[in-house]
Each structure stands twice: as C-alpha cells, then as structure tokens.
Specification:
Strand order of the largest sheet: 1-2-3-4-5-6-7-8-9-10-11-12-16-15-14-13
Order of helices and strands: HHHEEEEHEEEEHEEEEHHEEEE
Helix content: 10-25%
Distance between the termini: 30 Å
Strand content: 25-35%
Structural class: alpha+beta
Number of helices: 7
Radius of gyration: 24 Å
Number of strands: 16
Length: about 375
C-alpha cells in the first residue's frame, strides 16, 4: 500500500487555508515543500538565479499595489459604528442584525441570505447564520455591547467579486518570479475571528490558478507560488539539486529534471526542483541551503492486504527514536544545517506510521518520512510556518 505522507492535509489554516490552495496544482506545490513528498511536489523555481534581486523588491511592489491593514474593509471589523443600546444596556435586535449584515458585506464584499438567527442567552450573544449554496457566514454579536465577537466565513468568490487592485497586485508579484501564465484564477475567502483571541479580523483570500496561487491576508499578499520554466534555470542550481539527492540516496544516478516551482512567504524564498523517479529537492533560492529532499526510491512500502499493512505499521512505529535521531543528525551534517537536535522534542505520528517530527520552540520543525529499516527517504525543515 502506498504510504506517502499526508500529514499536511490539515490544509494549512493561514493565508492558504480553508483549503487555502484550492487548485489541485497549488495543493501539490505546498505539500511538496512542506512534506518533502515528490509526487505532491508543487514548489516554485525562479527565473534565472541571476534574477534573485527581484525578490528583494517584492515587498515594495506589493506594498504599492496591495491594500494595507488600515485600508478599506480589510482593516478588521468590530461593528462598533452600528451599536445602538437601550437604557438598560441591552442592544436592540434590529441593530445587531444591521451590524451582522454589514460585517458580512465588509468581509465578503457581497451578501448571503439569512439562514437563521439564534439567541444564545447563556452567552449573551445573537448568532446570525447566512448561506448561499455551499458558501456560509456565521456572525456572533454581543447582546450587551452590540459588537461582533466572533465570525466564521467560508466562501468561494467570482473573479468579479475580487477587487481589481488585489488581482493586479497578485499578477505583478507572480511576474516578479518569472511567471508567464494567464493566471485564470478561482477565488476563496476564509475568516476565523474570535474577539477573545484576536485583535482584529484576519480575512484570508486565496487566488488559485492551475499553475500559480496567491494568498492574501487583509488585502496584503502573504504567500505566493508558481511553476517556472525549467529552461530558465541556472545549470548550477540543477546540479546542486542532483548532489543533494545523492547525499540522501548514494545509489542515485543522474536524474532528469521534470519540473520546478517557487514559493515566497515573508522572508522565505524557496525553490523546489522535481526529478524523475518521484524525487525532489527544496532549497533557499538565494543561498542554495538545502531544506528538504525526498527520494521515493528509498520507500519500501508495497501494496498488500490490511493485515500486511498493519504489520508494516507496527514495524514502522517500532523503529527507535535513537535510530531516527542518528539518521537525521547524519543528514543535517551532510547538508550543513547546523542543528542541535538534542534540544528538539521527538514525536512519531501514530495515525501515519513512518512519519515523525522534531520540534523546538521558536525554530522550524523538521518532518521526516522513514522506512522499516529506519532509513529516511524524505525530510523537510519547515521554514514556511
């Protein structure tokens, strides 16, 4: 049975969430980068390595084209402008409904029909639930203050419902990576707001095309990715990827390059090269530090009955922590990662035998996939989180 890692099916709650990257190709990119999984590879490669200076200008470009947190409806909605209280301090229902309606329009840029309203007397809140097909918006209003105290939104959006300033900014950001596609995107919006937890509303918007994805938070680009023409890659970059694979699998011959993609998030600029035989390498696009590698040739799982798989799972879970720590330390040293693994906590994934994670507060987690011999066939230093 194919036991490829699926631990990031949590689908990232973040700029690419809800299911953030909703396009199938976009999902593959993020899985490759975050899982080191070859088949799901979906990262981005930049134009020529000589063009990396463009990445340093991306933040300035985005700042000029994207909306800032203080602009427009994306500034974080609390509904205080619509509060109208009685002398007893209880807000009128009509005012709460108006506040909820306006909050929905501000977050979505459109309106859904009211599905139902529910008075939650114990919580001193009114819940307004809106729906249009599979698109939903739930908004909780305090009956004492009239403010929005919680909101949950999951919605697909038509291209015409996306502000042109946002889509134009997305296209400029992708062009800076060497993207030459048409960016015929579908759009989705996601909000999970709780006044007890959040200072303001974070509105996550994802624009997903077949070969590119852009994630925005409150109108500002937070993460973007696209496929890049492999013919534009510096041969030295490709050679670095091949050498990285040969460190993981010494029996690896010279694989052929089959694809490349680039993902940019904050200060991270990660390039993923995909090779024949379901292999991939993820590196920093500027300094070529290797952050991940995956070679399915080292995967020892085969299709079998449920009992065969259960026995295999037992063997995977039985691989010792000491063995896996030693394997990771050896790889980290070979890739010059300078990791003090003795300070990391180790945890196997009981729901996905063959996958384990090393974590340490304040630093990126390291996720590995291993076979029943304790040999690592995929690892990733998750710098994107």
């Amino acid at each position: 049975m194919d036991n490829k890692p699926k631990w990031y099916e949590q689908a990232g709650r973040g700029p690419f969430e809800k299911n953030g990257f909703t396009a199938e190709h976009a999902e593959n990119v993020i899985r490759t980068i975050r899982e080191g999984q070859p088949q799901a590879a979906r990262e981005r490669v930049r134009r020529r390595y000589a063009g990396v200076a463009a990445a340093a200008c991306i933040a300035l470009t985005i700042a000029g084209l994207g909306w800032t947190v203080g602009d427009g409806p994306f500034s974080g909605y609390r509904g205080t402008d619509n509060v109208s209280s009685t002398a007893s301090g209880v807000v009128k229902e009509a005012d709460m409904r108006n506040t909820a309606d306006k909050a929905m329009r501000d977050m979505l840029g459109t309106s859904f029909p009211l599905e139902y309203a529910d008075h939650l007397s114990k919580k001193k809140q009114m819940l307004y639930s809106y729906r249009s097909g599979y698109n939903t918006a739930k908004i909780w209003i305090s009956t004492e203050t009239g403010e929005m105290v919680q909101a949950q939104v999951n919605s697909s959006l038509k291209p015409g419902e996306i502000d042109k300033k946002l889509s134009d900014g997305a296209r400029v950001a992708l062009a800076s990576l060497g993207y030459k596609g048409s960016f015929a995107y579908s759009a989705s919006r996601y909000v999970d707001y709780d006044a007890a937890r959040d200072k303001s509303v974070a509105i996550h918007t994802t624009l997903s095309a077949k070969d590119a994805t852009v994630g925005l938070i409150n109108g500002k680009i937070a993460e973007f990715s696209c496929e890049i023409d492999v013919g534009t890659l510096d041969p030295e970059v490709v050679e670095a990827g091949i050498k990285a694979l040969q460190i993981m699998n010494k029996n690896s011959k010279n694989p052929s390059l089959t694809g490349a993609s680039l993902v940019v998030k904050g200060t991270e600029d990660l390039l993923t090269l995909r090779f024949s035989g379901e292999a991939s390498v993820t590196m920093d696009n500027r300094v070529r530090v290797i952050y991940g590698a995956s070679d399915h040739a080292l995967f020892d799982g085969k299709a079998g009955s449920a009992s065969v798989q259960a026995e295999r799972d037992k063997q995977l879970l039985a691989v010792s922590e000491q063995k896996l720590r030693l394997e990771v330390e050896t790889l980290a040293s070979a890739y010059d990662l300078n990791l003090a693994l003795e300070d990391y906590q180790f945890k196997k994934n009981p729901k996905a035998p063959g996958i384990a994670t090393f974590t340490k507060p304040g630093v990126p987690a390291i996720t590995i996939s291993y076979n029943i011999s304790g040999e690592i066939w995929s690892f990733l230093v998750d710098t994107l989180k």
